[in-house]
Known about the structure:
By secondary structure, the chain is of the alpha/beta class. It is built from 13 helices and 17 strands. The protein folds into 2 domains: 4-168, Phosphoglycerate kinase, N-terminal domain (Rossmann fold), CATH 3.40.50; 175-380, Phosphoglycerate kinase, N-terminal domain (Rossmann fold). Helix 9 (294-306) packs parallel to helix 10.
Amino acid sequence: xxxxxxxxxxxxxxxxxxxxxxxxxxxxxxxxxxxxxxxxxxxxxxxxxxxxxxxxxxxxxxxxxxxxxxxxxxxxxxxxxxxxxxxxxxxxxxxxxxxxxxxxxxxxxxxxxxxxxxxxxxxxxxxxxxxxxxxxxxxxxxxxxxxxxxxxxxxxxxxxxxxxxxxxxxxxxxxxxxxxxxxxxxxxxxxxxxxxxxxxxxxxxxxxxxxxxxxxxxxxxxxxxxxxxxxxxxxxxxxxxxxxxxxxxxxxxxxxxxxxxxxxxxxxxxxxxxxxxxxxxxxxxxxxxxxxxxxxxxxxxxxxxxxxxxxxxxxxxxxxxxxxxxxxxxxxxxxxxxxxxxxxxxxxxxxxxxxxxxxxxxxxxxxxxxxxxxxxxxxxxxxxxxxxxxxx
Length: 392
């Protein structure tokens, strides 16, 4: 990819900048600004280079229709406050903007088109629509890695009509993911959770040949525990996944990758209850597994200590109840400690893991924290992302 950070002559250029500003809105108020915060460096860089910035972005899934509550207006106001710059939301229908010099008529440093998903042509990757968008600018920058698994007009189609570049955030994301999938410092370990093995099986298949350890936690671990003959009571688990587990175990032996699952756990009779430590063979039928136990925590910390690279996708327990946040907290503390002494390169991704780290104010303590969701997971599966391919 050609990175925009290496382009020198940007003065006066109209830059069409695709961002992912899909932040949670509650009654028109932003409840989490993480995605906005991450793209500020690109906006500041382009502004410093005296480029005219035209933002393309979306919120939610309006399905090609105008939905007032999914307007980008709150995001526009947030950017004004964070950047201290004039930012103007263009509410005019983009299909009605015919004059290629339309955007020269504004004094604001940053212009933002209204929610690009208000147009049905966007998700259809409509060629005519993409060409029309391209007519607004001199060059195109994609800094929305989290949307780059979508073949949409503002992600893929537009790149056919303008010189196209990657943004600063997308450069960081690709660099971090390359470090844990291609340019690896070994030993390398993965901590992976979630409720269903079937949704992560392709990731596990792709990582086992490259990784030294795959540590299974969360609801996925319950399925392993049950497969190995233990009662898991009322614990969340995925049914009919025995063949998948057999495949994982077989592949791991063939590739000499260790699969680690809990040896002891914390249980409760309900999600809001207090915790009780249990060995696997002593779990009762009316109990549910909600966190990893102290023996398992020590084992995982020991693996982290011996690792040079680590990927974390999925908390270890039901951290929403503080009684069951111990496993995730101890994992986070150990990675942070090793990060500070430059003993490890750490990448974290996945909504629940990011939420947990935000709850303990630790988002800035890892080498890279991805908010990319689906694109992050598809990259780990080894899939080619259309938005990245379009920039190559």
